[in-house]
Amino acid sequence: MRKIGSEKEIEEKRKRNVQIIGIFILGVLVLGTVGFGFLSGSGSSGNDNSQNVRDENLANGQVIETGGRWAANLNGQILYFINSPESVKNVSVLIDSDISSLTGKQVYLDSDNSAIRDEITINLGKYAGRISEACYGACNRDLPEKNCTESIIVWKDKLENKVYQEENCIFIEGDLKAVDAFLYRIFELN
Questions:
Q1: How many domains does the chain have?
Q2: What is the pTM of this model?
Q3: Can you give the pLDDT at residue 42?
Q4: Which residue, 140, 74, 142, is CA-closest to 132?
Q5: End-to-end alpha-carbon separation of the chain, Å?
Q6: 57 and 124 housed in the same domain
């Protein structure tokens, strides 16, 4: 049986429990913030790729291999790619846009592949005003439906890698090589 306590004892126990929970939550927040700082490159870890690239004073427009990825400096912004410029040079990229045509603008992205979304968002997100998921035309996902009157990047899983543009729509067909070919071209790095 549980002992029934006075109101004062019950209130003291409740306050102690609230303090313990508060200290625990504060500890989780502090440790999470510190951990995120080390993982995102603001820590002093010597193994961080972005820190290594900055330390090497990568010249503007230069692309180098670093830690299994490819890094490029574009006016002080470090961009990362899965594929080298040489491995994507045979991908057909027929677009008129460059990064200035997307800078500061709302860009929509239609892709159901998280690796594709990440590769585009991580690199273009440094320049576009905002990148949001959307559907090109009608779809059954709970996303806004867009057409070529707005800037939209549409990825389609195809066997052949190619990139082309129709009005404000950029269509990327293929795999990550096609995505990186698009990114190298939009940033004028090849």
A1: 3
A2: 0.69
A3: 41
A4: 142
A5: 77
A6: no
